[in-house]
Specification:
By secondary structure, this protein is α+β, with helices and mostly antiparallel strands. The protein contains 20 helices and 16 strands. Helix 1 runs parallel beside helix 7, helix 6 crosses helix 7 and helix 9 packs antiparallel against helix 11. The longest helix is centred in the first third of the chain and has 24 residues.
């Protein structure tokens, strides 16, 4: 996962190499490229700052239409583009730049809504591409961004091909060196592009990675990630994403890939720090608790005392063979401290009884406690975005919603955190049981998604805003909003973007 800062850097890089003349910060939102301009494979038009081709161009226009239907309709006065979005084959959608339709498309993508949707779409794509690279074993932020650049240009096969030539570990320098040998393919052939991306990443990212992704991680971030996994079960197979995340991080501890049938308490702890980009805070990853204690000791974060009052974010280690203090025998189990009270503390642990991720209330000084590791987290006020300190609401004063088939006012009100009566009054609806498909409804701006508010993921949700499928355990679960985007919210615990339409405000 990229830091917010690095994601924005990556967006500017992609814009620069696609339509900005390889000038960082430049782009052309109004770009329109005819079919076959660049190659015989480009059978359809390419549009926008991110060079969306064929079906992607269709998706972009659809999203703009959904974002601002009134402006779209005004610019597409004859309804030709809207009709083509319904019936045309966009894999072969060909227009001359001088045609009336092409000029209409340029106006649409150049509108305020068009620019906003382009920015949102490219961010979603980059987040998806970074996730793909992480699954291939890439962890360094600059290296992930280089891979996202390859993915955007040549597809996932290009990323796999270059990584297959890359010396490990997967650093930016190693990946760029491998790319320079990829001369027989599209990625390697664009030497000036790759050199620009490499130099920009070296200048703007490489020297800042440690500060942003490792030293900037708070205890609460780890707690939220762990809490987002509560309920995952080995028996049901829902714990597999944790195992897959652990195994994706290279090198594997002692060269061992964890099996789905294995005990997974330490695997869960390690996976949480992998997801946060902060494995250095725990001395490295491990799937064996006793071995991890050795890493804690080496890192200088181990506390050989099971009687102390822990702090939030501490890692607690248990020995089930000894119920008395001091307890310094073989380590059996591990978890993360999520809260502390006067006489006890609460943990989140993987592989609890029944093979699930769950919570445990532990008496302070309990005989079974082996000791604690205390990672050197950032202070909450140094890593929390400014908007997190003071809840800021998404601007919805002029937000609208276009009625879809199957909608009713009750459903819409629940989705946007309001009431049926508010919608009736705001839209002068005479019959609350009668709304029409295509009808544009005004939404209230007094209550909306904001940083710090609680939401529930609708059971009808299917995909995250970044395109990945939503796991079943997420549906129906409640989370805290940690960041608000355009039409989406970043949820704590799962640290994933979910579309507003798939959330219920609590």
């Amino acid at each position: 996962m990229l830091s917010k800062t690095n994601l924005e850097i990556l967006v500017k890089i992609i814009y620069a190499v696609e339509t900005g003349g390889q000038v960082y910060g430049n782009c052309r939102y109004d770009d329109f490229t005819e079919a076959y301009t660049n190659s015989s494979n480009e059978t359809a038009i390419t549009i926008g700052a991110g060079q969306w081709f064929a079906g992607e161009a269709k998706t972009l226009l659809q999203k703009i239409k959904e974002k601002d239907p009134d402006t779209f309709k005004k610019l597409d006065s004859k309804g030709e583009i809207a009709a083509d979005l319904k019936s045309a084959d966009w894999s072969k959608y060909q227009l001359k730049k001088s045609s009336a339709k092409a000029k209409t498309i340029v106006k649409i993508i150049s509108s305020a809504a068009g620019k906003e949707v382009q920015d949102s779409l490219v961010r979603e794509q980059m987040e998806k591409y970074v996730t793909e690279a992480e699954k291939l074993g890439v962890t360094d932020q600059a290296a992930l961004m280089m891979c996202a650049n390859f993915r955007h240009q040549g597809g996932l096969s290009a990323v796999k091909r270059v990584l297959g030539k890359t010396q490990k570990p997967y650093t930016l320098d190693h990946i760029y060196s491998a790319c320079c040998t990829d001369t027989g393919n599209q990625v390697g052939a664009y030497k000036s592009r790759q050199k620009f991306v490499y130099n920009t990443l070296k200048d703007k990212v490489s020297n800042k990675v440690k500060e942003e992704t490792k030293m900037g991680v708070t205890a609460q971030q780890i707690i939220d990630i762990m809490d987002g996994w509560v309920g995952l079960s080995r028996a049901k197979g829902t714990h597999k994403p944790i195992i897959d995340l652990y195994n994706s991080h290279k090198p594997l501890a002692r060269g061992y890939a964890v099996n789905y049938s294995d005990q997974f308490c330490d695997t869960t702890v390690s996976a949480a720090f992998i997801k946060a980009g902060a494995v250095d805070l725990i001395g490295g990853t491990e799937c064996g608790v006793e071995e991890h204690v050795k890493l804690f000791q080496k890192a200088g974060i181990w506390i050989e005392d099971g009687t102390i009052t822990p702090e939030k974010g501490d890692i607690v280690v248990f020995n089930w063979d000894d119920a008395t203090q001091p307890n310094d025998e073989y380590s059996d189990h591990i978890g993360v401290v999520r809260s502390v009270a006067s006489k006890n503390f609460e943990t989140t642990e993987g592989n609890m009884s029944g093979g699930i991720v769950g919570h445990r209330t532990v008496p302070i000084g309990w005989g079974y406690i082996r000791g604690f590791a205390r990672p050197k987290y950032a202070k909450a006020n140094t890593s929390t975005p400014k908007e997190d300190k003071k809840p800021t609401k998404e601007n919805t004063s002029s937000q609208t919603y276009t009625v879809k088939a199957g909608d009713n006012l009750t459903k819409i009100a629940k989705k946007y955190g309001t009431t049926v009566q508010v919608l009736v009054d705001l839209n002068n609806i005479k019959n609350k049981d009668l709304i029409n498909v295509g009808q544009v409804l005004k939404l209230p701006g007094t209550k909306s998604f904001c940083v710090g508010c609680r939401v529930r993921v609708n059971k009808s949700a299917t995909h995250y805003a970044t395109g990945q499928k939503i796991a079943s355990f997420v549906k129906g679960s409640e989370y805290k909003v940690i960041q608000v985007g355009t039409g989406k919210c970043l949820l704590g615990g799962i640290v994933s973007w979910v579309k507003n339409e798939d959330l219920t405000l609590l």
